[in-house]
Structures are given as structure tokens and as C-alpha cells.
């Protein structure tokens, strides 16, 4: 009985939580869109009209950000707001997280690697960029250093370490599969 309940829970829980999460996001965005429509004295014509409006606004914003004057104006506003320390910290963090989700901005060489540890074991990591920032390069001994992220299990956090390229073992493993492996502490080895 216990095994059957556990099996049912382990199979249903990820699906139910994923559907709940996306449904909650849909409802929240729909409410935001409905609020915008109602503030313009427009009655939403159908269920999901608010969500459709928000999706349309995001799409139009994406189109506008492909036009140079809009990009320049937004960049100027952003630079002015970044002069405020608290705004700079909060906005910078949110922008960096959003950039992580944007596959277009991911480094083309993002590579899964193994790094040998002092005890003879290996740690799975990810090369996150081509080069190390100049202040770090100046402080490090000679060598070709790259930032490598070691993802912590069950967290969206990790440790970035600077590793010599010659000490890395490249692995033919997709970023998504290796990230899933790291996030679940090696429990997840299945493909989506």
C-alpha cells in the first residue's frame, strides 16, 4: 500500500505542480490584463482576454525593442535609474535572471565540463563565458582561465569558480540535461 501511494505521488506530483504553476501564472496575467481593460472602461469580451492583452503588449514591446531609437531611449532611461544604488541592485539582479532565461543571450560555447577535485572525484560544471573579467585576470596566475558554474542541488544557486581551460574535461552532454542532473543531485537521469 505504501509503495503504491508513493509511486502515485511521485508520478502525479510533478505534473500537478507544473499545471498548477502555469495555471496560476495564466490567472495572474489574465487579472492584470483585465485590470488594464477595465481601467480603460472596456469589458473583457471573453475569458482569457486579459492574458491575451498582456501577451500582445509583451509582443509589441519585443517589436519596439528591435527599433534603434526605442533601444537608445530605453538604454538612456536605464542608465539614469542605475544612478540610484537600491534600484541598481534590485533591477540589476532581475535583469540578470531574465537574461539567463533568454537562450539568445546564452554564450554559444556554453559547455558541460568535468573538473577533477583534490580527492580524485569530479564535479559537473558549466563554462559560462569565453573570458574572465580583466580585474580577475590581472590577479590570477598566468593561464587561460574561464568562469565555470557549479550548480547546487535543489537550488537555483551555484558557485562560480575560475578554472584553467587545460584542467577541464569537456563532456558531450546538453546544458539542460546536465543542469537537471545537478539540480536533482543526480537523481534525475531521464530525458524530458
Automatic annotation (TrEMBL):
Source organism superkingdom: Bacteria
UniProt KW keywords: Membrane, Transmembrane, Transmembrane helix
Keyword Lipoprotein: no
InterPro entries to which the protein is assigned, alphabetical: COV1-like
Name of this chain's protein: DUF502 domain-containing protein
TM annotation in the entry: 12-29, 49-74
Amino acid at each position: 500500500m505504501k509503495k503504491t501511494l508513493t509511486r502515485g505521488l511521485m508520478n502525479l506530483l510533478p505534473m500537478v505542480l507544473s499545471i498548477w504553476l502555469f495555471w496560476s501564472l495564466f490567472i495572474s496575467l489574465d487579472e492584470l490584463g483585465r485590470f488594464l481593460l477595465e481601467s480603460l472602461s472596456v469589458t473583457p469580451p471573453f475569458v482569457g482576454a486579459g492574458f491575451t492583452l498582456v501577451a500582445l503588449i509583451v509582443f509589441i514591446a519585443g517589436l519596439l525593442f528591435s527599433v534603434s531609437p526605442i533601444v537608445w531611449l530605453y538604454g538612456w532611461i536605464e542608465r539614469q535609474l542605475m544612478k540610484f544604488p537600491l534600484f541598481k541592485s534590485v533591477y540589476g539582479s532581475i535583469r540578470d535572471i531574465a537574461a539567463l532565461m533568454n537562450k539568445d543571450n546564452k554564450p554559444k560555447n556554453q559547455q558541460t565540463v568535468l573538473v577533477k577535485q583534490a580527492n580524485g572525484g569530479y564535479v559537473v560544471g558549466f563554462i559560462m563565458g569565453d573570458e574572465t573579467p580583466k580585474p580577475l585576470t590581472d590577479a590570477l596566475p598566468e593561464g587561460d582561465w574561464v568562469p565555470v558554474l557549479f550548480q547546487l542541488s535543489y537550488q537555483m544557486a551555484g558557485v562560480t569558480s575560475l578554472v584553467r581551460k587545460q584542467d577541464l574535461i569537456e563532456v558531450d552532454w546538453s546544458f539542460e540535461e546536465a543542469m537537471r542532473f545537478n539540480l536533482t543531485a543526480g537523481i534525475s537521469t531521464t530525458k524530458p
